[in-house]
Amino acid sequence: MSLSNFLRKWEYRFDSKSEKFFRQHPLPGFLFVMIGMPLLILLGVFIGTAVIALPMAYLFGWL
């Protein structure tokens, strides 16, 4: 099985399971989408920036 087929099937399964969860639990689903997802995005940006900036700061003697 190729990687693209695997990802397509995984995406379809994830979509169907998340849709089922959001239909059964609308409030936790809403809170996750409106609060949890932006926090996860900010965490990803922070980690990516730290991975780049901290080694550079160490090399330049700022740490």
SSE layout and pairings?
Layout: H1 3-24, H2 26-59
User: Helicity, in percent?
Assistant: over 70%
What's the number of extended β-strand segments?
A: 0
Number of helices: 2
Low-pLDDT ranges: none
Span between termini: 48 Å
Percentage beta strand: under 5%
How would you sum up the global shape? flat
Q: What integer value in Å does the Rg equal?
A: 19 Å
User: Could you spell the SSE succession in H and E letters?
Assistant: HH
Going by helix content, strand content and strand pairing, the class is mainly alpha
Give the rounded overall mean pLDDT: 94
Q: Main sheet?
A: none
Describe the protein in words.
With 63 residues, the protein is mainly α. Helices cover 89% and strands 0% of the residues. It contains two helices and no strands. The longest helix is centred in the last third of the chain and has 34 residues, at 26-59. The radius of gyration is 19 Å and the shape is flat. The chain starts with a helix and ends with a helix.
